[in-house]
């Protein structure tokens, strides 16, 4: 069995690995690494800059052009891979 996990799932995956490691009939191999992830950025229904976030001073001036948000964001995150096999 091969388990891969990132973020909050790492702790749960390590708990499973420890459980199987305590069983005599299984061999457990653990590898850590980094993976590249792509986040899609979606503007909410109110828009990225809502009127609640603007100060009174900004309200009086002429409307400015809102900054354009990127559509995607690429980042790196920690990952773990657990291989569980029969001995």
Rg, Å, rounded: 23 Å
Corresponding CATH superfamily: Alba-like domain
| Overall tally of domains | 1
The CATH class, by name, is: Alpha Beta
Main sheet: strands, sense, barrel: 3 strands, antiparallel
- Total number of helices: 2
Strand order, largest beta sheet: 1-3-2
Provide keyphrases for this structure:
rod-shaped, 2 helices, Translation Initiation Factor IF3, three-stranded antiparallel β-sheet, single chain, 87 residues, alpha+beta
Describe this structure in words.
The chain has one domain (2-43, 68-86): Translation Initiation Factor IF3 (2-Layer Sandwich), CATH 3.30.110. The protein contains two helices and three strands, in the order βαβαβ. The chain has helices at residues 9-22, 56-60, and strands at 2-6, 26-40, 72-86.
SSE map:
Layout: E1 2-6, H1 9-22, E2 26-40, H2 56-60, E3 72-86
Antiparallel strand pairs: 1-3, 2-3
Quick structural overview:
This protein is an alpha+beta fold.
């Amino acid at each position: 069995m091969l388990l891969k996990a990132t973020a909050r799932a790492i702790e749960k995956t390590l708990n499973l690995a420890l459980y199987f490691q305590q069983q005599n009939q299984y061999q457990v191999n653990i590898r850590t690494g980094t993976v590249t992830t792509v986040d899609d950025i979606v503007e909410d229904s109110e828009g990225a800059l809502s009127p609640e976030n603007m100060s009174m001073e900004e309200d009086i001036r002429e409307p400015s052009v809102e900054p354009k948000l990127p559509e995607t964001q690429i980042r790196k995150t920690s990952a773990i891979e657990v291989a569980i096999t029969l001995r």
